[in-house]
Design brief:
16 helices; globular
């Protein structure tokens, strides 16, 4: 699919994540698209991105509040709507844009619960527009190489996968400061974060998940866990707290120009607090989770996510009828003490691979990646991983190419994710949340979603 030039883009949700798309359309992809509208609850955040556009020589787009989104569609007539708003609102904007005939680019997860998922299905199936879910990890060379090896039959038919993801006390903690801490908005980490991971497995296997059993809880963050460990009398937020300079769980928004402009300076508009204490009341999501997922093919997935690990990365073991694949990724090898954390933005290390705390070769756990292939009755061999530049293991740059400048050439790895891919991924998270509530296995096929390709 080759897209026409000079497409009109509207962006819904002008927080940090919007920056990737705004930056792309004002630099590398300025020749293929124009930003024509912002939609957000917060005028200050929209004004921040006005500055990004005008600094690049463009005109500041008009601002719209969420209740005016219909008017935005009528007045600006965008060709594409990019949705980077809080997860529980995705369906509202995606459905309206599709009904207006727009294409839609949605940040993962597609949505957070079953009824909104059905709303998106109805909108897609009744629209001439296309919907893409931005699963950037598909485009990371290491993950693409795993897909290629499985598809080539290198380990035969896959029978089981073990997938462990560790979020450290910089990146993992950050989900417990912001709106993600409320399951009603984010769906919890099993929807917001794990949708990446479930999508990888679905894509690697080219398979459909069917039954999910989950366990988990809030074991580290939150006020009750803090009290058990003697962490009492903590401030409600980082800004203005007396221990800001020495607390490794504090976030100094004023120390980073972008965070200050998007959040600290914007609080008066809508009251959103970006630096809530990770040990404060009101957290309704889990920080330790484990799943058992069975697939239509008979393959099984065992999955775990921990959000307070001392290092960040993931380990995947894939067993097949003819051997085994192992992928080990260390994105940040350790978290330095308070002096190494305070004053630095709390970010995903895969977004900032030059972060000094990723470690070096003198560290027993250096940052890096490795794929091992071992066929039955043969020694293991290390599989070279193609070089990738940029954030998320080199995935973001390839994703942006696919969104803004597709070549029309078929991709043998099928990395472009449509709405069914988004449904398959989020269905695992929705089922997992239901299993957490009931303590019982949940059959995804009962959801009535069109999960087949």
């Amino acid at each position: 699919m080759t897209l026409p030039q000079n497409r009109r883009y509207a962006v819904v949700g002008t927080g940090s994540r919007a920056g990737m798309y705004v930056g792309a359309l004002t630099t590398t992809y300025a020749d293929v698209g124009t930003l024509v509208a912002w939609c957000d609850t917060n005028p200050t955040r929209m004004t921040y991105y006005d500055g990004v556009v005008t600094a690049a020589g463009g005109a500041a787009p008009p601002h719209y509040a969420p209740d005016d989104f219909g008017r935005l569609l009528e007045e600006q007539r965008p060709d594409v709507v990019v949705v980077t708003s809080p997860d529980a609102t995705h369906h509202r904007y995606a459905a309206a844009a599709l009904e207006a005939g727009c294409d839609v680019v949605v940040e993962k997860p597609l949505t957070t619960s079953l009824e909104p998922a059905k709303t998106i299905v109805d909108a897609v199936e009744g629209s001439s527009g296309d919907l893409v879910v931005t699963f950037n990890y598909r485009y990371s060379p290491r993950n693409s190489e795993v897909r290629r090896l499985i598809a080539s039959g290198a380990i035969g038919k896959v029978t089981s996968i073990h997938f462990e993801w560790a979020l450290d006390t910089v990146h993992g903690a950050d989900y417990f400061r912001r709106w993600h801490r409320e399951k009603a908005i984010s769906g919890g980490l099993l929807v917001h974060k794990s949708s990446h991971h479930f999508d990888l497995v679905n894509w690697w296997l080219a398979d459909v998940p069917e039954v999910v059993t989950a366990a988990g809880g809030l074991r580290f963050y939150g006020d009750k866990n803090a009290a058990e460990r003697g962490l009492t009398d903590r401030p409600a937020r980082s800004a203005g707290s007396p221990g800001l300079s020495s607390d490794p769980f504090a976030l100094d928004l004023s120390a980073d120009e972008k965070l200050r402009a998007l959040y600290l300076d914007a609080e008066a508009d809508d009251g959103y607090i970006r630096d809530q204490d990770v040990f404060s009341p009101g957290i309704t999501i889990e920080d330790n989770m484990g799943l058992l997922v069975t697939y239509r093919s008979g393959a099984i997935l065992t999955y775990s996510l921990n959000a307070h690990a001392p290092w960040e990365g993931y380990r995947v073991s894939i067993n097949g009828t003819e051997g085994r694949l192992e992928l080990d990724v260390v994105e940040r090898s350790f978290v330095e003490g308070p002096n190494g954390v305070v004053g630095r933005p709390a970010v995903d290390p895969s977004v900032n691979p030059d972060d000094p705390s990723t470690g070096d070769t003198t560290n027993p756990r250096p940052a890096g990646e490795r794929i091992l292939l071992q066929r039955h009755w043969e020694p293991a061999q290390e599989i070279p991983i193609p070089e990738g530049e940029g954030a998320h293991g080199g995935g973001d740059n390839h994703l942006l190419d696919d969104i803004f400048r597709p070549t029309g050439t078929p991709d043998p790895l099928d990395r472009r994710a449509g709405y069914r891919d988004g449904l398959r991924s989020v269905a695992v998270g929705i089922a997992a949340n239901r299993s957490l509530e009931t303590g019982l296995p949940v059959n995804i096929t009962d959801f009535g979603l069109p999960l087949d390709r």
